[in-house]
Structure formats: C-alpha cells, structure tokens
Amino acid sequence: MMDFYVMTLFPEMIEAWTDGSIIGRAKKNGLISVNAVNIRDYTENKHQRVDDYPYGGGAGMVMQAQPVFDCWKAVCGMTGKRAERPRTIYLSPQGKQLTQEMALSLAKEEELILLCGHYEGIDERALELIGAEEVSIGDYVLTGGELPALVLIDCVARLIPGVLGGDESALIESFHDNLLEYPQYTRPEVYEGLSVPEILLSGHHANVEKWRRRQSIERTLLRRPDLIGEAVLSKKEQRFLWELKERLSKEEDEANENGECEAKACEGLEEEKQTEAEAKFQTEG
C-alpha cells in the first residue's frame, strides 16, 4: 500500500477528485490512501491567515513559513517516519519536469508528501527547512499546486500493482521503452468508411506485436522525435527506424521539389498574365 499526504489550502479539491474512477477504486481496495491535510489548520494566526505581503514589494501574496512548516512536521508524524524525513515533493513550475521515469521511481516509495503552493509561492525558508524536491508538470503557471499534485498522484498510483487490474497495462503504454503507444481500435470494424487495420483482425499475435512496435516507433519519430534517440530498440527495429527515416526524408525532398515546381508555375502564370495585361494596355493606348 502507498500513502499520499497532500498539504493544501483546498483539501476538498483533492478529496473530490481522488474519490472517483480508478484512483477511487484503488482507495476502496486498500491499494493506496490519499490524505488531504489543510495547511490553514496549523496557522498561529487567530483569523487563520496563512499569507502575507512579500518583503521587497511586488504583486500578490506569499504563503508564510510557519503554517507550512508546522503542517509538514505534523504530517511527518502521521507517516511514522518523522526522523527519516519522508520524501516530500513541492509542486512548482521551477522544478524538475515529471516524467514516466520519475513516476517509476516515486512508485517505489511507501509514502509521499505533496506540498501545494498558492498565491505567489511559499516563503523560501519553509522550503529550505523541509528540504522538498521541486517537481513541475510543465512549463506553464497554474493558480495552485492542487492540479499538479493530482496529476502526480494519478501518474504514480497507476504503477502500483493491482491499481489498473492488469499490471501489464501500465507497462505497454506511452513512454514504455521511450516510445509512444501504438494506435488503438475497437468495434465496429468499419466506421464512417474507415476500417480497422487488417493485421489486427488476423489473430496472428506475433505479427500484431510487430505491427504495434513499428507503429510506436513511427509515431514517436513523427510526434516526439526528442524521445526516439533514447528508445530501447532491437537490431531489427533499429534497421526499421533507419529505413523509416530514409523514406520520410525522401518524401520530404519530393514534397519540397513539388512545392518549388508549383511556385515556379505560379510565377510563370503571373508573368504571363502581366505580359498580357501590358499588351492589352498598349493596344488600348
């Protein structure tokens, strides 16, 4: 079982989402637990205030160090690993980007503490005291860390044995072997004139697997070429990738040539029209 502890100002967001679908079922089956802890409960301010103006001026408010750090200490006590400093993730656009490789690493933990920031961020002293790892889900800014925390929970929880039902499901999806997943089809065989590839109807499992791997390689090359260099490929698949690159390069060259020919044809047509117009003008003159 894996325990997630989410430090947040909006525990209802975490609870509402994690009670449904696959994550909700995993909670009911005792495979994971998700504990939303309200940072506001640990503030010493009688009005339950957790933020203040930034030193040095500037827009917005900053979450104060005291309620964040005290909340974290309390959560460490909940985990039973207070002395060992359980692994803590601060969801921040400044952090290392979440990848499938990172998710696999996080899935090996028994407990994870996720810290959700808000406003203009968290007082740096709290982050230094906690020693949290900063993790980002992308190069963009959100209003708070709750959505990134939910993304991380979903990404990690599905790797825990039993959560998806069949453990194989998590192993053959996108980013396995640094490849995107192959295209999927279901009934009917023909829809709006589009048919399921015949190979998938053949019942020949070895050929289906070969087709799927090649589709994954081609899709990765076309859609995420930054991944293809790190893909785990057999020698035959490396040969296929080389041939695929050659074919695509040839097609691109032909397309460029056709484009140049069309451009020249258009230029010729424009010149012809201009000549005719000038001749007509001179005749009328």
Describe this entry's structure for a reader.
There is one protein chain. The protein has 285 residues and is α/β, with parallel strands linked by helices. The protein has a domain at 2-157: Alpha/beta knot (3-Layer(aba) Sandwich), CATH 3.40.1280. It has 10 helices and 9 strands. The chain has helices spanning 11-18, 21-28, 65-79, 100-106, 124-130, 146-157, 168-171, 205-223, 225-228, 235-284, and strands spanning 2-8, 32-38, 51-52, 62-63, 88-97, 111-116, 133-136, 190-191, 194-195. The strands form 3 sheets. The chain has a 5-stranded parallel beta sheet with strand order 2-1-6-5-7, sandwiched between helices. Strands 3-4 form a two-stranded antiparallel sheet. α3 packs parallel to α5. The mean pLDDT is 91.
Which SSEs are present, and which pair or pack?
Elements: E1 2-8, H1 11-18, H2 21-28, E2 32-38, E3 51-52, E4 62-63, H3 65-79, E5 88-97, H4 100-106, E6 111-116, H5 124-130, E7 133-136, H6 146-157, H7 168-171, E8 190-191, E9 194-195, H8 205-223, H9 225-228, H10 235-284
Parallel strand pairs: 1-2, 1-6, 5-6, 5-7
Antiparallel strand pairs: 3-4, 8-9
